[in-house]
Amino acid sequence: MTVFAAVEDELALWDAAGLAPRFWLRDDDAVEPTPALERLIGFARRRNAPVLLAVVPARVTQALADRLADEPLVRPCQHGISHRNNAAEGMPSLELGGAQPAEDVLAELAQGRARLLGLFGDRLSGILVPPWNRMAPEVAARLEEIGFSGLSTWSWQRKGTSLPELNTQIDVMDWAGGQRGRDLAWTAGELLRRLVQAREKGGAPLGILTHHLVHDERAWSTLDELVAWLADERGFAFESAEALIAAGAAMQG
């Protein structure tokens, strides 16, 4: 595809440096089975691409646990507590911090984790995904105390935790432009930009972020064409978030 011509040139630089790009997928805000979730599951199966599915513990249903029980490519993880905004007026949205004391946030996170473990058992990932990809540093510093083994947010910024971080860098949704899907040309350009950054960081993994509940047709199409090009045309196998963290490939600085 011509939209990936500049990406091909960047991949040649990876080859010259003895590096191989690594890709993974995360989808946010799941609570129950929906037609959109079925479409995501179908995509994961068709592309043989593992998905880390961020689930809101206060709103999750038994039906979601039942639906995912036999879907090895879709791994649930914890997405905050109830996806509520605790930030002061005029500040960026934030659930894990803000007006709520860290001790209370940690207690609620632990309760949410216990609920998800009751539903998903050992299928539940140890990775935490904070709503809006933000959290207070005093909460981040103590995540290991309540059983988390990793953290996933956005871009390259670390959140002040000792846990490995595996972040997403490419979002197929244009939130500021009317909450609609990005087109393939824009996404190819963003892939190029993020590949350059990842190469400069020694080959850090690149995460693609999706939100199945709000995808329009362009978002679904762009996601499928992007993953098809990376996997079918270029031969990159998408990896699971847990495997990347276990391999020590998470971005550490």
Defining key terms:
253 residues; alpha/beta; TIM Barrel; five-stranded parallel sheet; two-stranded parallel sheet; 8 helices; 13% strand; globular
How would you describe what is shown here?
The chain has 253 residues and is an alpha/beta fold. The protein has a single domain, classed as TIM Barrel (Alpha-Beta Barrel). 38% of the residues lie in helices and 13% in strands. It has helices at 5-16, 35-47, 62-68, 102-120, 137-140, 184-200, 217-233, 241-246; strands at residues 23-30, 51-55, 74-78, 127-128, 150-151, 170-171, 173-174, 180-181, 206-210. Strands 3-2-1-9-6 form a five-stranded parallel beta sheet. Strands 4-5 form a two-stranded parallel ribbon. Strand 2 (51-55), helix 3 and strand 3 (74-78) form a beta-alpha-beta unit. Helix 1 runs parallel beside helix 6 (184-200). The longest helix is centred in the middle third of the chain and has 19 residues, at 102-120. The model has no long low-confidence stretch (mean pLDDT 94).
Could you give the topology of this structure?
Layout: H1 5-16, E1 23-30, H2 35-47, E2 51-55, H3 62-68, E3 74-78, H4 102-120, E4 127-128, H5 137-140, E5 150-151, E6 170-171, E7 173-174, E8 180-181, H6 184-200, E9 206-210, H7 217-233, H8 241-246
Helix pairs in contact: 1-6
Briefly characterize the structure:
This protein is α/β, with parallel strands linked by helices. Helix content is 38%, strand content 13%.
